[in-house]
Amino acid sequence: MLNSETIVHPRLQHVGLLTGNLPRLLDWYQKVLGMRVVHASENPTAAPAGSPPSHVKAAFLSNDEMSHRFAVIEVPGLTVDPERSRHQRLQHVAFEFGTLDELLGSYARIKALGIVPQFSVDEGSQTGFYYEDPDGNSIEINVCNYPERWAAIEHMQTSPDFDHKPLGVFVDPDKMIAARDLGASPWELHKRAWQGEFEPEHPFDPTTML
Questions:
Q1: pTM
Q2: DSSP-assigned letter for residue 201
């Protein structure tokens, strides 16, 4: 029977993006998140050749078992909005690693390609690095600081640190990697981050994202 009374909780499946430069965006997501093109279309609306809709393109990307995590539509003529920071919008999309070593290793790999995060932060319940794609969309890659998810929820609900500073403390990933190479455990890195040991030389100004 249909359940029409209680809330059923669907899982987040994919995000849709509009772009004016599909190849550039596909290249970035392949390098940063390991996305692959599951399907691409030069004319997804099957519009008559030469008509405006026939110039629209589409690609469906995934980096796991799902058919697609991103649906990207290219519309010719779209440009960067210089007033984007003044508009209501989706602020960021996040992808989670299973371990801190995966997060730090991915940071090092991506940095070697010339791509670095806008800022990195230990948020108490998790550690996240925030990147900006070629269209200005904010993409977070993160890892939970706790081995159990319930503990991360409890941290957010009961920790004085989180209550005082829910957006966390800024960190320098290179300093974290150096400490990890010297034998510090992931939990030790988390505690030392909150003691200010991994503060970046030039702290990020969060108001630039508002």
A1: 0.93
A2: S
Domain termination site, one of 29, 44, 74: 74
Residue 30 and residue 108: Cα distance in Å, rounded?
Answer: 16
Structural domains in the chain (count): 2
- Establish if 202 belongs to a structural domain: yes
For residue range 25-61, list pLDDT tens digits in order: 999 999 999 999 999 999 998 989 988 888 999 999 9
* Residue partners of 45: CB distance under 8 A and separation at least 6: 53, 54, 56
Domain span including residue 26: 15-74
| Residue 210 confidence (pLDDT) | 54
* Burial class for 82, CB neighbours closer than 10 Å (0-12, 13-18, 19+): exposed
Query: Using an 8 Å Cβ cutoff, are 62 and 38 in contact?
Result: yes
* Phi and psi torsions of 112, nearest 5°: -65, -20
116 and 197 part of one domain: yes
d(CA 100, CA 180): 10
